[in-house]
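Worked Example 4.2. Consider the chain below.
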Amino acid sequence: MEAGQTELQDRDNLIFNLFRAALSRPEAERDQFLRHACSADLELFTEVDRRLKWETRLNGFLEAPILSRDRADRPFAAGDLILDRFRILRVAGEGGMGVVYEAMDEKLGQRRALKCPRFEFRKRISPEAAKSLNVTHPNVCRVYEIYTVETNTGEIDFLTMEFLEGETLAVRLPKAPTGLLKTPEGLAIARQICAGLKAVHVQGIIHRDLKPGNIMLCNDTSGQPRAVLMDFGIAQSDEIFSSQVRGTPAYVAPELWKGDGAATGQSDLYALGVLLYQMASGRLPFPEETTWERRLKELPEAPGIGEPHRSAIMQCLQPDPLKRAANIDRIEASLTGRRSRRWLLAAVVAAATAGAVGVSSYVSRSYPRLPPEVRLAVLPPAMDGLEDVTDTAPLKGLANGFSARLKSLRGVQGQLFVFTATQTAEADATTVIKAKDILSATHIITCQMQREGTGWSIHAELIDARTGNTLEQWRTTAASEKEFSARFYDMEELVFRGTIRSLDFGAVPTRQSLTPECYLDFQLGLYYTRSENLNAAKAIAHFQKVIGAAPQSALGYAALAEAYLQLDNTNDARKAVAKAEQLDPDLPQMHYVRAIISTRTGSRQWALADLARASELNPRDAEFFIAMANAHYFMNELKEAEQDLERAIAAEPGYYKTYLMGGEFHFQQGRPGVAERFWLKAVTLAPGRLEARLNMAKAYLAEDRLADAKTRIDQCLRIRKTPKVLTYLGTYQERAGLIDQAIETYRDVIEMEPQAFKVYARLGSLYRRKAQMEKAASAFREGLRRTEKDMNSHPGDAGHIAWSALYYANLGDSPHTRERAERALEVARGIGGSKAATEHSKANVREPLILAYDRIGEGDRAEQMMAGASPDLLTELRRSPDVSDRLKKHVGIP
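Applying the procedure from the previous section yields the following structure tokens:
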């Protein structure tokens, strides 16, 4: 093609595309749009404007092809055999540029995608498009060959491409969390889009239409998520149609709308910025009503988009292409927050020089360099002679505060495992020797507080557990109440930064977002929110003081939301979380609390997204992975739940709670032997806690190992006598035939916890076995009363409703039994929405409803309820004297 012909074709393409773009705008905006797009080119403006006016008069005549639109745009039909090779199966998708068919390549026996341009774009596939055949990258749709075929509507060029199954990013975005880019899934998608776009640019190809609809989300051959760029097969190399303006208006770079030059890699970067903005915020950069003058000259606002994502996006969205990032590598680096090693070292040095007023530090400089694995245990603080909450709570908070911040460090060289003061207390690792033996601690932090007249002194040490040497020690005093809060604040900061310096973590320390004035209120609020002495009202009052003193601290709002949840005040909790997100969208605690809210409202997919983001921000906190495992288990996604537990163990190998839940997971899957091993590990890690020992007793009871069960129950009784421990004792006594003892034990449970409504069912059953029918009826009536009282407080709890059905059945009231049973099932079906969530909810009501239907003689309904029952429940039913022979026979129980 000669130079003059090329220039003429370029001009025609530009006129055509500006004409199409203007038509996509409301009629009132077309003139303003064209004036900006055509800039000083009056001849171009006149030509496009003339066509627009004719189009308005002729009511779409210029846009309508002479041939049937359907026939021209869809030249093939299902069943057609093209070139004696490609059997058309169906239309797989359509876009503004063409139609895609799913076809079978009968020569190779493989599925292919055939892409045919729409009628007006048929000549857009050029031999130079062969460049696209050179792109072989997992994040780019593979283009195999260009073919030409004669049809009834003329000669058509088409492409054969890799056939992809999945959904586009455009389909995923409305279903995804608003901040998809903040989640591991979203960040992975963004990285893969960058990788694919880079591979296209390396071959000299400009995509020209990068948008969510052209990103396919599917899985690779190993089942891993894969984002794939599509629709670049009709894109031209950078030598062809250089002035072509193509693409969806919101994603087209300003210089192309203004006709300032050829489409380049920089214009693709602008589209990438729009796409990333949409993934980060759930909306396009500019509101629909924004003027074109502003769109073409200004950067959009970015409320709620935090770093490092904001920097990456704004590098792309610069209106001037010369001010955009030089290449995609720069965007990838900004997107992931990567910085040079020199910058990290400078930040650490700067942080290490920061001191705290009124706090002294004595440092040993002979410590060795950080080993490949550090297991840092913060011991429970020593508080001899201190009893007042205002004394003890801040010291506990101080220890947990700096240990939590150390756990959330990023960029740590080697492996770092931090055991908080709460975790070491649970593990009974309360001394240097115990922490070394139980947790294999390599380093230990101790802290203590003492009264000194009218004031206090606080002393902390960092100890090398392998040698016993003190690496650092810190001391501070507070002479009055006024100094108290500030000194705790200073002490946390110095211990935190001093530990980073001493152990040479190679990480950048984060700053405190609280202020000295509100530190004490924050720690007291946490005490009343999380300790055994729960008092959410007091906690809220303290957190409101925190917010008043530090209104820019997201921590205060996240903690306030957690306190509201203690009062079941979801609305105010949601408002507080929204404010926390506005202040710091990357605060792990905010994501964790929001996940709790989503779980309570049945939005478990949203909860998983927040938990995934929290775990990405703080990968050394097992709690996030444990919560993810719970959510996946609730949704019956067992493989994912097990993977989450494995990640929790990897994050904190010495944390008992992961093994506790892991044992429960395997027990529910009918693997009591595996469960026992998990629970034994939990007992080793947290010998002072009851849960694992009680769960082992449960496993032994399921396996008829009564002597072993009794041993574990006795161990628990020596630690602490609780209603739950006594309930297990009563179960053992029942199974051992000690009916009178079991009755007395259950009566003790009721005396300790009158609201334990389920125990009345066991008590009534035992009285019935002894033929003491009046006592049995009295127990069932009291159980019903207690259950209905709880139902008033938890009207949406299907379990309470199901247990009331069982009590009515035991009292011989069949009509009320049926009514409550149906109501329980209706509520269970409405929880969570998904099939998995419904099944999990039905599992919570299955036992009482099976027994209830069986009791009133409706065996068919009872048998229906047994479908899907866990092995544990089937074992309990087999042993229960309250189950009819018919029901036992139905499930093969002798």
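The chain has a mean pLDDT of 78. Residues 19 and 156 are 24 Å apart (CA to CA). Compare this with Example 4.1 before moving on.
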